[in-house]
Design goal:
Elements: E1 17-21, H1 25-36, E2 40-44, H2 58-62, E3 67-69, H3 73-80, E4 85-88, H4 92-98, H5 102-106, E5 113-116, H6 133-139, H7 160-183, E6 187-190, H8 193-201, E7 207-208, E8 226-230, E9 236-240, H9 244-254, H10 278-291, H11 296-305, E10 310-312, H12 316-320, H13 323-327, E11 331-336, E12 340-345, E13 350-351, E14 363-364, E15 395-399, H14 404-414, E16 418-423, H15 434-441, E17 445-448, H16 454-465, E18 469-472, H17 478-481, H18 486-492, E19 497-502, H19 517-523, H20 526-531, H21 543-566, E20 571-575, H22 576-583, H23 585-588, E21 611-616, E22 619-624, H24 628-638, H25 646-651, H26 655-664, E23 669-671, H27 682-686, E24 690-695, E25 699-704, E26 709-710, H28 728-734, H29 739-746, H30 752-763
Parallel strand pairs: 1-2, 1-4, 2-3, 3-14, 4-5, 5-6, 15-16, 15-18, 16-17, 18-19, 19-20
Antiparallel strand pairs: 6-26, 7-25, 8-9, 9-10, 11-12, 13-20, 21-22, 22-23, 24-25
Enzyme class: transferase
EC number: 2.8.3.-
Protein name: CoA transferase
Length: 764
């Protein structure tokens, strides 16, 4: 039962009842994650499909651990009266017709956490489309940002946006439970496909209102310090030296520091930041020639010895069998009554006190809705769901750098937490990418501390004593060396939830190695699958970083929920390595006779004829004519007899003409949001996808607004930019520090008069 006492070794969500009314992969993944964390998840299905081979191998993974129950609308409403969480993924019209809107259900059960996960959005032209990852990546701007040779949208072979959507939905559900622990009231969240696209694209979809801002472009070659290279043996590897310091370290390892003084570079890293510039071209030529002289293994060993982030391109099978995956307990086996033994990704989050549930295949049941759960006695004082964000009153210390770990705190801020970012005195290295830094940290207060000094360490410890959550991604053992390691923090503040984010997880020899998103696209087989028979392709959108952030936030929320029951905090671990397994859960799920996962190619248009991107006279559209019936409808609409003729038939029509025609024939299709002026798209604007943030050096910037919507969400949570340590004084005054003490921490020199006055105060 919810709220019952539990042994600390139990799953965080033991006793929580989740009613999942779903057909989409995103909602099913949300339910899967809640089940992994211990919740009793009942998925409403029609009909039960446990006795046939699933249409998608991922279905076995999506539904593991659940009870599958066929129910009608009235039965669903009755079951919702006894649930803690309801996850529903209908389109807006479907939600209204089924009477499963939050106001409908919470009138019966005001303690319910209602999470609506529409496939695209809550309103607008494309909101009623059936779920399809290709269409979501089209309207969410993902396809329009993929690397390409020709200027065209590219179809991702892995549905990372949909997978991320599922993780965000699960996080919203647990955030609502945390809020209910403190108020007793339910909460209402909307987590749409656009929220997932916005989370994945937040660092890239940024436009200047007052002046143009830098855009990285879509070249498959990318930039010389952040791209694929081919070695002498024909093997590929990704050099991931995101910052100037890392690139200099790489050149030093190669004994090629002379590259920095090439005339086209002139010692300025900024001359390597624009694709196609003379500096980029000159350095590319030098490095391509150099790397062609030795096999891939030589370069990997060279860079590993210098602690430079770099990775060879591997296949999915090689990744699944790797020691890194094994060390992180990345895969598990279950028995399926039709498929036999199935190997699939394990739970991607680890806890120091709680356990996560071992996976088992979904179980089909046919009980009446009244028998799903025992009836509960409800508090009569609860009149209505809360209108507050569920984490209001929660304080988070973000002592992390770059993207994945800070995004954990950013998501918690969107759930209502107060977040204080603690940077080194010289700033987060991610500030080298100023616009991206602002996008990720726009809802935080900014402080700066020198943790190498005793005042800096003492101040961090004092901040943590007054906080609920600490998020960090320092190298293993670094906090211990500073005297403020996890054991010290747990002793000083037993209720603290600590979230540790790393690249390789706890993978033995790799545990301290640096790593960025494309490193794991390369290692995990994702880049090889995207490139197909052509060269491997790493996507520019940071799918591993953003999904690790979502999983980290989910782990923190689960630990906070359990703390509300046990009174004790714990440590949460997530990593890019574990996320890389989770992101390809469908592709890595294997059993005897499963079909081969999808592979792409250069400028991959989509998985099949009729299910791909097509050019029109004034732009591109995405078409999802999946299945024989839809394929015939597409042919009938265009007056052609073969799917190979669709491309030429659409090429003579405008985007609007094509979309109207296909809509009349009930063929799912939508416009592709392309790179240029993407945030001006009417569908994105109607759904309040972006807002304005001001930055002194750039003026007004348009960037992604929110990663979840709570309640009516009528008031925009304003974003802001801040300088390194810009809010330090304000935060420390709130902590009770004197101005003199703050000056000491900040290294502000004291005048003789101030020092004399301070001595008099101490003496008195």
């Amino acid at each position: 039962m919810s709220g019952s006492r539990r042994d600390h070794s139990d799953c965080p969500l033991i006793g929580i009842r989740v009613l999942e009314v779903s057909t989409t992969r995103a909602a099913r993944i949300a339910g899967q994650l809640l089940s992994d964390l211990g919740a009793d998840v009942v998925r409403v299905v029609a009909p039960v499909r446990n006795t046939v081979i699933p249409a998608d191998p991922g279905e076995v993974w999506w539904d593991r651990g659940k009870r599958l129950v066929p129910s009608g609308s009235d039965e669903i409403r009755n079951a919702a009266m006894e649930a803690d969480v309801m996850v529903v993924d209908h389109t807006p019209a479907g939600l209204r017709a089924s009477q499963l809107r939050a106001e409908d259900i919470q009138a019966l059960n005001p303690e319910l956490i209602h999470v609506w996960m529409p496939p695209y959005a809550a309103t607008g032209r494309w909101a009623e489309l059936e779920e399809d990852p290709l269409l979501l990546d089209a309207v969410g701007g993902v396809a329009g940002r993929y690397p390409c040779v020709e200027d065209r949208p590219v179809a991702p072979v892995v549905a990372t946006t949909s997978i991320l959507h599922g993780a965000l939905g699960a996080g919203a559900a647990v955030a609502g439970l945390v809020g209910r622990n403190s108020t007793g009231s339910g909460h209402t969240a909307v987590v749409s496909g656009l929220h997932a696209a916005g989370t994945q694209m937040a660092t890239m979809m940024i436009e200047g209102v007052d002046q143009p801002v830098f855009s990285p472009g879509r070249s498959v070659r990318s930039l010389p310090f952040w791209r694929m290279y081919q070695a002498s043996d024909g093997q590929w590897f990704f050099l991931a030296t995101l910052t100037p310091d890392l690139f200099i370290r790489a050149l030093d390892a190669l004994d090629r520091m002379d590259i920095l003084v090439l005339p086209e570079v002139a010692g300025e890293f900024t001359n390597l930041m624009v694709v196609g510039s003379p500096g980029v071209h000159a350095v590319e030529q030098e490095l391509e020639s150099l790397f062609a002289t030795e096999p891939c293994s030589h370069w990997i060993a060279t860079f590993a010895a210098a602690d430079v982030p770099c990775a060879p391109v591997r296949t999915r099978a090689e990744w699944a069998a790797s020691d890194i995956v094994a060390a992180n307990h990345g895969m598990t086996r279950i028995e399926h009554d039709v498929l036999g033994e199935v190997t699939m990704p394990d739970v991607p989050i680890a806890f120091s006190r709680s356990r996560v549930r071992a996976a088992h295949a979904a179980v089909a049941e046919r009980p009446p809705a009244s028998q799903l759960w025992t009836r509960r006695t409800r508090a009569t004082s609860i009149q209505a769901p809360s209108t507050r964000r569920p984490l209001e009153g929660i304080r988070v210390i973000d002592a992390a750098t770059f993207l994945a770990a800070p995004l954990v705190a950013s998501l918690l801020a969107d759930h209502g937490a107060e977040v204080i970012k603690v940077e080194p005195r010289n700033g987060d290295p991610y500030r080298a990418f100023t616009l991206s830094f602002i996008a990720v940290n726009q809802h935080k207060l900014g402080t700066a501390l020198d943790l190498r000094t005793e005042p800096g360490r003492d101040t961090l410890l004092n901040l943590v004593r007054g906080a609920d959550v600490l998020v960090e991604n320092l190298r293993p053992g670094h906090l211990d060396k500073l005297g403020i390691g996890p054991e010290v923090l747990q002793r000083e503040h037993p209720e603290l939830v600590q979230c540790t984010v790393s690249a390789y997880g706890r993978a033995g020899d790799y545990a301290t190695a640096p790593g960025f998103d494309p490193v794991f696209q390369s290692l995990s087989g994702m880049a090889a699958a995207q490139g197909g028979d052509a060269q491997p392709l790493a996507a520019p959108m940071p799918a591993h970083d953003t999904c690790t952030g979502a999983l980290g936030a989910l782990g923190v929320l689960a630990a906070l929920y359990e703390r509300g029951v046990t009174g004790v905090g714990q440590q949460v671990w997530v990593s890019l390595a574990s996320t890389s397994i989770f992101l390809q859960g469908s592709e890595l799920t294997s059993y005897l006779g499963r079909p081969e996962p999808q592979r792409g190619g250069m400028d991959h248009p989509g998985p099949a004829e009729g299910h791909r991107f097509y050019a029109c006279t004034d732009g591109w559209i995405a078409v999802a004519a999946v299945g024989e019936g839809r394929a015939q409808a597409l042919l009938h609409a265009l007056g052609t007899g073969d799917l190979t003729e669709v491309e030429s038939a659409l090429a003579t029509r405008s985007v609007e003409e094509a979309l109207v025609l296909l809509s009349e024939h009930r063929v799912p299709a939508c416009r592709v949001v392309e790179d240029k002026d993407a945030l001006e798209d009417s569908f994105l604007q109607e759904n309040r996808f972006s807002h304005i943030v001001s930055a002194p050096q750039f003026g007004r910037l348009r960037m992604v607004r929110a990663l979840v919507q709570w309640g009516e969400d009528g008031e925009d949570k304003p974003g802001r930019s801040f300088t390194v340590g810009g809010d330090t004084r304000e935060v420390l005054v709130d902590l009770g520090y004197t101005e003199a003490r703050i000056d000491e921490i900040l290294g502000v020199p004291r005048t003789e008069q101030e020092q004399e006055q301070e001595n008099r105060v101490r003496t008195s």
